[in-house]
From TrEMBL:
This is OsmC family protein. PANTHER family: PROTEIN YHFA.
Length: 140
């Protein structure tokens, strides 16, 4: 299976990229790089892809396991190399679960399954970055 995405220049430093979902995303450089800052930055978008991919896995497993979670977010904190081409050489991925009745063992299992088995974006990141997975439970 292949994915085909078309990214069209809009002028200045802005682009619009389509997606097989039918939605589009605007990509733009910051003002310090000649853009207007009216879009998402490409490297940061990779972190959103990483969190989104794993998050979809985890939510799917939360539903299958019938777990009670009031709030769930993922923070991705990446270190960018100093030399060009700059890339992420390490990423901390923090899974935050909030709720009154959190089953920590099962939530950890859900995260582990995503990280180790299901998330293709995670596997791609593994090829170029050190990943540090953290799970934080916020009991209400």
């Amino acid at each position: 299976m292949t994915n085909h995405v078309t990214t069209k220049w809009l002028g200045e430093m802005a682009f619009e990229s389509n997606n097989p979902s039918g939605h589009t995303v605007r990509i733009d450089a910051g003002e310090e790089s000649g853009g207007s800052g009216a879009g998402l930055r490409p490297k940061a978008l990779m972190l959103s892809s990483l969190a989104g991919c794993s998050g979809l896995d985890v939510v799917s497993l939360i539903k299958k396991m019938k777990l009670e979670v009031e709030d769930f977010k993922i923070d991705t904190i990446a270190n960018l190399t100093d030399e060009h081409p700059k890339y992420y050489d390490s990423v901390v991925i923090q899974y935050h679960f909030t709720g009154a009745n959190l089953n920590e063992d099962k939530l950890k299992k859900a995260v582990d399954l995503s990280v180790e088995k299901y998330c293709g974006v995670m596997e791609m990141f593994r090829k170029f970055a050190k990943l540090d997975i953290k799970i934080l439970y916020h009991h209400k």
